[in-house]
Write a structure and sequence with these properties.
The complex is a heterodimer. By secondary structure, chain A is mostly helical. Helices cover 77% and strands 0% of the residues of chain A. Chain A has 12 helices and no strands. Chain A is globular, with a radius of gyration of 24 Å. By secondary structure, chain B is of the alpha+beta class. Chain B contains 9 helices and 20 strands. The longest helix of chain B has 18 residues, at 166-183. Chain B is elongated, with a radius of gyration of 25 Å. Classes of the chains: A mainly alpha, B alpha+beta. Chain A binds chain B through residues 167, 169-170, 172-180, 188, 191-192, 277, and chain B through 50-52, 71-73, 77-79, 81-83, 85, 87-89, 98-99, 102-103, 132, 146, 150, 156.
């Protein structure tokens, strides 16, 4: 074979792989976005792949009649609470792991991740019993606490990687030039770590936003969006919902998270400590 | 401006003793260079003076004030870090103004002082930029400006030039020294570069393995090193060190070794009386020798000769360094100018006896 042919084949192979990977992710999203707005007649027409008539009926029904809008509000509250609690607990831990040498540091790091090995269904029943006793069952704070437990290991590890990316000398310089240790953390390290911390916050937000199992177990009337959607779709209101409702529900679930990631994209690289100048 | 005094300062990290019983005096307005190889404890010493580390034992005084356990912010010091540590999220102006803002200077005073420092370091044009937009040399200037803007009692510098390229380093060396002379601030400067130490310091303190070996003005440390380590650490090319034996003959004392026998003047007898018949290290700097018939030693009262064969010639342009095989020893001789001696030539080396060094083989302390 000529060099040119080899080159062309390689290129074709390269783009085939890329195309497949992108299609794998994109096609289900496109399909659910498309059929979530398709009129019933078009949806059931076997000869029609691209529908002609669209409607926002299902989205509206799910949001306002079936309570998904409240779910969105609940989810936002839970995710925000999760971020706040996990940051209050996680930032000092991440900072210590990044900046100090102490005995048992590696063990602690390992055990932080190891806690995530427990399957959540195993913990769900003891958790709900505990919650009922503590009067936390069916409260948003309860869900936020559970989500914090899930997100915290990552918050600790991510923030420690962010803080170790901020040179020790920046902080020392601030101390030499007149600040206390806390002052130099607040005035120098924190602003420098902010893009990374924002990324960690987004990660936590999305994690909480998508979590369905714990939220379903722990709540009944104050459901977060995924739990609410699950109960709508799985048919707590009498039989499974028609397909186009499922697609519309998928749209409602995906869109906020996608928008979120879209804006977070810039910071996601920073989150893993790859670039931090 | 203040005098800095360290008394028996020891610092341990776990079992590792980084600094061992250090005693040091830095006079008011003096430029002291802490010189030593990496890991010798010089940076730890500097960090203890800054307050970023606390000594395990011993005391540190600024004048009469005991600052041993004082946090850095209460010491009125400034520091230039090796990585500059110019904060990337602040403009150059904000960086320089930072120490003033923390100390709550009035607004117009801050403005005035920042301009003054920026002008002194020729970075007036960069005040609105962010550090990310500056070159290494410019960032370095910002770091120095930030350090002098508050007129500190003590200015500390931790290898501030080591990240600059060679040309810039030479330039900044002169500038920093001039700046210090102008401001008359007590300065402690850490470096592993003996050229920096020689050119900048009023006093050089040589450290190795946590110990302070010698303190003195550059010429003294250079000409009268008190130990083998100081002798070989300072000077480029390095001082020649060869094994020798002190021998007493009828016509006076001799230093003998592989391929040479140096006749010493009578007055060396007293200095070497404890070493008769014993092995020692003989140290001769490359510039304290010459090749007979090529050039002559000037202003030398006593000299002796050794024979050797040219092994290699390094032509540096301004100087020539000739590697000479003398017996089993390889001796480097530095001659001014371009001297293309052919390899393999038999030559005679003339040694300046006023500038030879003899070290005890066990303690490695200087005898002469």
């Amino acid at each position: 074979m000529k060099d040119e042919t080899v080159y062309t084949l390689k290129k074709i192979g390269f783009y085939t792989v890329i195309f497949t990977a992108v299609a794998w992710i994109l096609i289900p999203i496109i399909v659910s976005f498309l059929y979530g707005f398709t009129s019933k007649a078009d949806y059931y027409d076997p000869h029609m792949v691209i529908p002609h008539h669209y409607t926002t009926e299902y989205v509206r029904v799910i949001l306002f009649t079936l309570g998904a809008w409240d779910g969105i509000k609940n989810s936002t509250i839970v995710a925000t609470l999760t971020i706040i609690i996990s940051f209050i607990l996680g930032i000092p831990a991440g900072y210590s792991i990044a900046k100090f040498v102490f005995p048992g540091k590696d063990t602690i790091k390992l055990s932080i991740i190891a806690l995530r090995m427990f399957p959540i269904p195993v913990m769900a029943i003891p958790l709900i019993i505990l919650y009922i006793r503590l009067h936390l069952a069916d409260t948003l704070l309860g869900v936020a606490l559970a989500h914090t437990a899930m997100a915290l290991p990552f918050v600790v590890l991510i923030t420690s990687s962010i803080f170790s990316g901020v040179s020790k000398e920046y902080e020392e310089a601030a101390m030499v030039f007149g600040l206390t240790r806390l002052g130099s953390f607040l005035k120098i390290t924190l602003p420098l770590a902010l893009p990374g911390l924002a990324a960690a916050a987004m990660f936590t937000f999305v994690m909480s936003w998508n979590e369905v199992f714990v939220a379903s177990v722990l709540t009944l009337t104050h459901r977060t969006l995924p739990a609410q959607i699950l109960s709508i779709m799985a048919g707590s209101s009498g039989g499974a919902a028609p397909d186009y409702y499922k697609f519309a529900a998928a749209f409602i679930m995906t869109l906020p998270a996608m928008l979120f990631i879209f804006f977070a994209r810039k910071y996601l690289v920073t989150m893993w400590g790859i670039t931090l100048k | 401006m203040v005098e800095v005094k360290l008394e028996n300062v020891t610092k341990r990290f776990g079992n590792f003793e980084a600094v061992k019983g250090l005693n040091l005096n830095v006079k008011n307005g003096e430029f002291l260079v802490l010189l030593g190889p990496s890991g010798c404890g010089k940076t730890t010493t500097l960090r203890m003076i800054s307050g970023l580390e606390t000594p395990t034992e011993g005391k540190i005084y600024f004048g009469e004030r005991d600052v041993t356990y004082l946090p850095p912010k209460d010491r009125n010091i400034s520091m230039v870090f090796q990585s500059y540590a110019v904060w990337p999220h602040m403009t150059v102006y904000e960086n320089i103004a930072f120490p003033l803002r923390v100390k709550k200077y009035p607004k117009d005073e801050i403005e005035k002082r920042v301009r003054w420092a920026a002008e002194l370091l020729q970075i007036e044009g960069l005040l609105d930029r962010y550090p990310g937009q500056l070159s290494g040399g410019q960032r370095q200037r910002v770091a120095v400006a930030r350090a002098i803007v508050v007129e500190p009692d003590v200015l500390l510098m931790d290898e501030p030039l080591s990240n600059l390229d060679a040309k810039l380093r030479v330039m900044m060396r002169a500038e920093l020294k001039k700046l210090q002379t102008k401001l008359k601030v007590t300065t402690i400067y850490v470096t592993h570069d003996q050229v920096e130490a020689m050119t900048m310091g009023d006093q050089i303190a040589v450290m190795n393995q946590g110990r302070l070996l010698q303190v003195g003005p550059p010429t003294e440390v250079y000409l009268k090193p008190n130990s083998l380590f100081v002798a070989t650490f300072i000077g480029a090319p390095e001082m020649n060190i060869v094994d020798a034996t002190v021998v007493e003959k009828e016509d006076g004392p001799y230093l003998e070794g592989s391929g040479f026998s140096l006749k010493l003047p009578e007055d060396f007898k007293g200095l070497l009386k404890d070493y008769m018949g014993k092995e020692v290290y003989l140290g001769i700097r490359p510039e304290h020798m010459t090749v007979k018939g090529v050039s002559t030693l000037e202003h030398v009262s006593k000299s002796a000769e050794m024979e050797g064969v040219v092994d290699f010639v390094e032509a540096l342009g301004t100087d020539t360094i000739i590697h000479v095989k003398v017996g089993d020893n390889l001796i480097k001789v530095k001659l001014p100018g371009h001297i293309p001696l052919p390899v393999g030539d038999k030559i005679k080396i003339e040694v300046d006896l006023d500038n030879i060094h003899v070290f005890d083989k066990k303690t490695e302390k200087a005898v002469i």
